[in-house]
Design brief:
Layout (H helix, E strand, L loop, with lengths): L54 H10 L1 E4 L3 E7 L6 E4 L8 H18 L7 E7 L2 H4 L2 H17 L10
Length: 164
């Protein structure tokens, strides 16, 4: 004789289907979180064309690039003959465990994403964040990124015109 499977805590309850006029799925019978209502926010674009991905690219920026320092991060910048700029991140284990390093990268990436259109084209930039990124106010982080963009614009390679 086959037994019907039931969830711990009682027999399986019959639920009405969405076509029978219910407002939507109820809470998860297994005790999980209720479903999230409302539309999902649009994804924040961070395309591959804007990221430095290869070790060779990072090494090239470190060896031939110029260093910029501020209280929240160090950045290495290298002019390149490319259509657009690319950004990379290095977060050493000295900054903390993976969750902390990921939080640092997320905050810095968002500050960069918001101001990326202001960056002059044709640069590779590698960011080395400091622990202070976690505690810094986000507007201050954005300000420091924009300061880097101004510093980069002042070092526009010869033979290239700054963008209008």
């Amino acid at each position: 004789m086959a037994e019907e499977y039931s969830l711990p805590g009682g027999p399986r309850e019959e639920r009405a289907s969405p076509s029978e006029g219910t407002a939507g799925p109820g809470p998860d019978p297994r005790g999980g979180r209720p479903p999230v209502s409302g539309p999902k926010p649009p994804p924040r674009p961070w395309p591959r064309s804007v990221r430095l991905l290869r070790r060779r690219q990072f090494e090239q920026v470190y060896s031939a690039g110029r260093r910029y320092s501020c209280p929240l991060f160090s950045a290495f910048v290298l002019p390149v003959d490319a259509a657009g700029s690319s950004v990379g991140f290095t977060t050493p284990r000295a900054l903390g465990k993976a969750t902390r390093r990921n939080c640092i990268k997320r905050r810095l990436r968002e500050a960069i994403r918001l101001s990326l259109p202001e960056l002059e084209p044709a640069w590779h930039i590698v960011f080395n964040p400091r622990r202070a990124v976690l505690e810094a106010a986000f507007p201050y982080l954005e300000q420091q990124v924009r300061e880097l963009w101004r510093w980069v614009a002042a070092r526009q390679p010869r033979g290239r015109e700054p963008a209008p």
